[in-house]
Amino acid sequence: MKIPAFKAVLFDMDGVITDTMPYHFRAWRKVFGAHGLKVSKFDVYRREGQKGTKSIQEIFAQAGILLTPEMAGRIIAEKELLFKKILRQRFIPGSRTLVSRLSRRGLRLALVTGTSRHEVEHTLPKGLLSLFQATITGSDVRLGKPDPEPYLKALKALKINAREAVVIENAPFGIMSAKAAGITCYAVTTSLPKEYLGQADKVFKNMKSLTDVLIKEVNV
Ligand code: CA
Predict the structure, then answer these.
(1) Considering the entire predicted model, what is its pTM?
(2) In a domain, 135, yes or no
(3) Which of 48, 68, 139, 146 is placed for a possible disulfide with 171 were both Cys, Cβ 3.0 to 4.6 Å?
(4) Which portions of the chain are predicted below pLDDT 50?
(5) 71 CA distance to ligand 1 centroid (A)?
């Protein structure tokens, strides 16, 4: 089998670089709880990358309650406020090592996340953020994942074509976005088991096993 020769690596953030999902879940559970609804970890994790207001409307609809966009907007504001309050900086083990190794090898790197630019700058240390030549945030796109727009924008910003890049993701909507943009996608099971990540080209159990394979597949 021919070994790929990637020139660029496009990283998702939540669940790939930063370990923020437990805080998102705690914030969602509390906010839904205040409205009389129970959510499971799976309800939250499988929706990662979805627009918050859409998740709210879907979860309320499951309970037979129809919300207007304004009502969903008020609930998302409560959730975001709480999330910011409880968030502590935590990283997926091995993620920073992988980013700096690829950077030293001269790979072009992009960060592609649905999180707003303001929150990205609040979450990542400057030294780490500066290793990415392009950062596409939720504030920079019209359509979020699973639409291909975020990853297409990253390719354009790095001046690279889809065949030369690989995406690192952890959630179904992110994988759909990468594949719709025509890019190879590797997934890590940091938040969901591999049966939910089946659309990815390869699935890894952690950053270490991903790093071992990826470092052999880059060509610069
Ligand atoms: Ca993610």
Answers:
(1) 0.90
(2) yes
(3) 48
(4) none
(5) 26
